[in-house]
Specification:
Its EC number is 3.2.1.2. Pfam families: Glyco_hydro_14 (PF01373). It is an enzyme of class 3 (hydrolase). It contains ten helices and ten strands. By secondary structure, the chain is α/β, with parallel strands linked by helices. The chain has a domain of 192 residues: Glycosidases (TIM Barrel). The strands form four sheets. Strands 3-6-7-10 form a four-stranded parallel sheet. The protein has a two-stranded antiparallel sheet with strand order 1-2. A two-stranded antiparallel sheet has the order 4-5. Helix 1 runs antiparallel to helix 3 and helix 2 crosses helix 4. The longest helix is centred in the first third of the chain and has 21 residues. The two termini are 27 Å apart.
Length: 351
């Protein structure tokens, strides 16, 4: 599961290494602690009142002191404390985004977790800003807020962050010309805050998909190619073209100004690795590659943005671009049923 980072640091005040929750965030945290049995007692009622939350707060303090006193009694107690510390961190990340350092210190629960936790940054962490008329460059959208967020994530015990490296941002205007400056700034910021970075090579558009709240298209020059050759995009039986990502059918075709899509993806990743070489291994801990819409290895069978699909519709086949149909026709002949090569099933329903 990906955890999105955003405006999640309200409801807390910090001073040095200590962070104190207050208001609604504290009450929700205490209820979460109670439900996991890490505070005082258990809470099986999801609609626990604020008075029971206050009671849980008092017993939580007593329980924390008891845990501190018994921490040295044996390996079993140590393991229990580590589990409790993990749950505390989980509770705070769900409800406030602030580190429960004060509670953990009092309970003696400062052992490092063996499970690395990465938090997904907002989709628009890097944004295109107009430097001069008609010239756009990728920049960090809110660098000061981002730096504050990274610091608080580190205080909360997070290992690192995950960020989308957008094809439509970096290679936006001209094939083979890359601008990773904003991502270099992010890597430096992460390093100074003691965080690692998982970089996702995002060769799809953002916007109009489930959970999207931004609009980041494919590179302009790719969309221009698509205007002349719409078959580079997935297409449904009605001829609707989806510019969210390139069709798998053209992976091996030199449709991108003389390059195949796979070659374009390879060149992009190589450029990223070359540019960020000084950060590889110690800051950049992982590089992953998106393989379809929303970065997932699937077909864009349920496009929500233009209203064609609504839950719980079954979606439609996206195999009607010229490249997919040619492949279907060839495979149908190979199995001795050329009549199968004219299109997808006629009775599969619609969106």
């Amino acid at each position: 599961m990906r955890v999105r980072a955003g405006t999640c640091f309200g409801g807390a005040s910090t001073s040095g290494r200590r962070t104190t929750l207050h208001g609604r965030g504290r009450n929700r945290l205490l209820r979460c602690q109670a439900s996991f049995g890490v505070g005082g007692g258990r809470c099986n009622n999801s609609k626990a009142s604020s008075s029971s939350s206050s009671s849980s707060a008092s017993s939580s303090s007593a329980s924390a002191s008891a845990a501190s006193a018994s921490a040295a009694s044996g390996r079993g107690s140590r393991n229990e404390n580590m589990v409790r510390a993990s749950v505390l961190r989980t509770c705070e990340s769900l409800f406030s985004g602030a580190a429960v350092v004060e509670v953990a210190e009092e309970a003696g629960l400062q052992e490092e977790s063996n499970v690395p936790v990465y938090v997904m940054l907002p989709l628009d962490t890097v944004w295109r800003q107009e430097e001069q008329e008609g010239v756009y460059n990728p920049v960090l959208k809110t660098p000061k807020k981002l730096n504050d967020a990274l610091r608080k994530l580190r205080e909360a015990g997070v290992t690192g962050v995950m960020v989308d490296v957008w094809w439509g941002m970096v290679e936006a205007d001209t094939p083979g010309r890359y601008n990773f400056d904003a991502y270099l700034e992010l890597l430096k910021m992460a390093a100074l805050n003691g965080l690692k970075v998982q970089a996702v090579m995002s060769f799809h558009a953002a916007g109009g998909n489930v959970g999207d709240n931004v609009n980041i298209p494919l590179p302009d020059w790719v969309l221009q190619v698509g205007q002349d050759q719409p078959d580079i995009f997935f297409t449904d039986a009605s001829g609707h073209v989806n510019p969210e990502c390139l069709s798998l059918g053209c992976d091996g075709e030199p449709v991108l100004r003389g390059r195949t899509p796979v070659q374009a993806y390879r060149d992009f990743v190589e450029a990223f690795l070359t540019t960020t070489e000084g950060y590889l291994g110690w800051v950049v801990s992982e590089v992953t590659v998106g393989l379809g819409p929303a970065g997932e290895m699937r077909y864009p069978s349920y496009p929500e943005g233009d209203g064609r699909w609504r839950f719980p519709g079954i979606g439609e086949f996206q195999c009607y671009d010229a490249y997919m149909l040619a492949d279907l026709k060839e495979k149908a002949k190979e199995v001795g049923h050329p009549e199968w090569g004219h299109g997808g099933p006629h009775d599969s329903g619609n969106y």
